[in-house]
Amino acid sequence: MDALTATHYDIRPVETAKDRRAFMRAPYRLYADDPNYVAPLEFELSQRIDAAKNPSLKDSPHRLWTAWRDGRPVGRISAILNSAHIARYNDGAGHFGFLEGEDDPALFDALVGAASAWLREKGATKIAGPFSFSTNEECGLLVDGFDTPPYIMMPHGRPYYQTHLERLGFKKAVDMHALEWLPIRQFIPEKRLAFVDKALNKPGVEIRNLKADDLLGDIKIILDIYHDAWSDNWGFIPFTEDHARHMASELKPIIQEHNVVLCYYKGEPVAFGLVLPNVNRAIRDFGGKLLPFNWAKLLWRLKVKGVDQSRMPLMGVRKRLQKKPVGAAFAYKIIDMVNSANIDHGVTHSELSWILEQNEAMLTMLLDMGSRIYKTYRIYEKPL
Q1: Geometric angle at alpha carbon 251, from 249 and 253, rounded to 5°
Q2: Vertex 237, ends 234 and 243: CA angle to 5°?
Q3: In the chain, N or C: fewer CB atoms in 10 Å?
Q4: Nearest to 382 by CA among 96, 61, 175
């Protein structure tokens, strides 16, 4: 299905550079009255939707649509048959993402209808999402926590999106939580700190920060641990070599040595933590534009002034250690190290995200540390 007219909406496939600009800018007017919306940098978003630059799109059929009314873009959606997901799960699922639109049932009917029809034609038997474009990128529909801006690589949304998807028959597949953390120096109780020190006071334990001169090498180590630690998690799909190089290239301008911790046990890398400065905090007034002068503002805010918010998107301990004292100790130590370093660098607010609702062990640990669940994101699914 290439185009669809529903009521007074035209749902057009994205094919040209002009179409891509309209797709990227479609949300701007929708959030004009929302002080918590942060427009992503257009140059970054343009790379994410470019199959030549985003490894997630390699060998994965996909399509983008923009909804038009009276000559203006008023909504958008994407659809993808994610080859990595299909290879791992073989569940017949196609995915939708980048969902935005005015509060009109006819518009959501048309957008979801276009994505569903295309996926059905490609052989999918189920539609799930939002994934923009995978679990390793932005995913989930915000269903709780609209009163604060999103952190880097986390989506925002409108409350009525949930209403329209559920009206169309979508059911919850899983919820994911974001936790707010207000950094304090001594968040580990004294007894638990003694346990951590005892567990890590062993021969063969080594803990270090990122080697900036070997970023790609450390990213590969992180992904190797991640593939083992996260492989049983809902929706997990592995990163490829191309992903590793792409990640290193994307992180190079913003990554900080103190925000990456690698742990070794008996010579093997077994645990890691990765924290990012909340770039959204630095670009809120950019309106998605980096040129002509915002690039200088961004550089100054990141490298000179500093950003007072950070997000931990990834942490992992190899499965064989996850239920052992040394594994738990590594997790506490990682959080303790990045927490202290971020306080030293002026960070006053952090987000730990996302955490699957069924990951009770991690949620319990983080809640015991003093964090709180303040946003919830939902993945929906529906038979086709």
Answers
A1: 90
A2: 145
A3: C
A4: 96
Quote the DSSP letter at residue 303.
I
Burial class (CB in 10 A: 0-12, 13-18, 19+), 195: middle
Residue 6 clears pLDDT 60, i.e. is over it: no
CA distances from 351 to 30, 184, 335, 366 (A): 26, 14, 12, 11
pTM beyond 0.70, yes or no:
yes
State how far the Cα of 88 lies from the Cα of 380, in Å rounded to an integer. Answer: 19
Please name each of the domains of the chain with its CATH number: 4-177 (3.40.630.30), 183-347 (3.40.630.30)
CA 324 to chain centre: 29
pLDDT digit string, tens, across residues 181-197 = 998 887 887 888 888 99
2: amino acid identity, one letter: D
Task: Give the torsion sign (CA, 108, 110, 116, 118).
Answer: negative
Which residue is listed with tokens 């093997």?
Answer: 268
**Over the stretch 297-308, which tens digit does the pLDDT of each residue have?**
999 999 899 999
pLDDT of residue 3 exceeding 70, the answer is no
Torsion angle of C-alpha atoms 92, 94, 95, 101, degrees rounded to 10: -130
Distance CA 243, CA 322 (A): 26
Give the whole-angstrom CA distance, residue 312 versus residue 215. 18
Answer whether 362's CB lies under 8 Å from 355's CB. yes
SS3 219: helix
Average pLDDT rounded to a whole number, residues 360-383: 94
Complete DSSP assignment for 226-286? HHHHSTTSTT-----HHHHHHHHHHHTTT--GGGEEEEEETTEEEEEEEEEE-HHHHHTTS
Beta-carbon contacts of residue 101 (< 8 Å; ≥ 6 apart): 30, 67, 74, 75, 76, 77, 107, 108, 111, 161, 164
**Strand 62-69 and strand 268-277: pairing?**
unpaired
Cα of first residue to Cα of last residue in the chain, in angstroms, is 15
